[in-house]
Amino acid sequence: MEKRFFYVKDYTQNVPEKATKNVLHQNDQTNSVIWVIPPGEVLPAHYHPETDDIWIILQGKGEYFLGRGETFPIEPGMVIPAVKGEIHGAKAVGNEPLVFAAVSAPMPAVMIKEGE
């Protein structure tokens, strides 16, 4: 792996206009990313048919999508695993971006939006 150490601040200094995935590492087994979701923006409810997706909430607050219109409040310090087939997604609420690290395996992580 070319780079092994990452600072979250490098991905949050300039908040994007839309939900943005920053890939830190990816190979044929796993990937790790930092998501930055600006206030009021959404990472749509979706699932991965063959991939688990573990989120570690680092900054901000949000509403975690559980599917069928259900949500759960999320905040820094939470770890949220979604096993293959489980609906997940989020909306950033409050005045700061929702920032989380995510690790997914196995690859590829096919994304299917809820209802498709």
List keywords for this structure.
single chain; 116 residues; mainly beta; Jelly Rolls; five-stranded antiparallel β-sheet; 1 helix; 10 strands; 3% helix; globular
Overview of the molecule:
This protein is mainly β and 116 residues long. It has a single domain (19-110), classed as Sandwich (Jelly Rolls), CATH 2.60.120. The protein has one helix spanning 9-12, and strands spanning 20-26, 31-37, 42-47, 52-59, 61-67, 70-74, 79-82, 88-93, 98-105, 112-113. A 5-stranded antiparallel beta sheet has the order 1-2-9-4-7, with no helix packed on it. It has a 5-stranded antiparallel beta sheet with strand order 6-5-8-3-10, with no helix packed on it. 28% of the residues are buried.
Radius of gyration: 14 Å
Write down the secondary-structure element order.
HEEEEEEEEEE
CATH architecture: Sandwich
Please tell me the overall pLDDT: 96
Shape: globular
Question: Main beta sheet: strand number and arrangement?
Answer: 5 strands, antiparallel
Q: Report the structural category.
A: mainly beta
Number of domains: 1
CATH class, named Mainly Beta
Classify the beta-strand content into a percent band.
over 45%
Distance between the termini: 35 Å
Helical residues, percent: under 10%
CATH topology: Jelly Rolls
Give me the CATH superfamily: Jelly Rolls
Largest sheet strand order: 1-2-9-4-7
Number of helices: 1
Provide a compact summary of the structure:
This protein is mainly beta and 116 residues long. The protein contains one helix and ten strands.
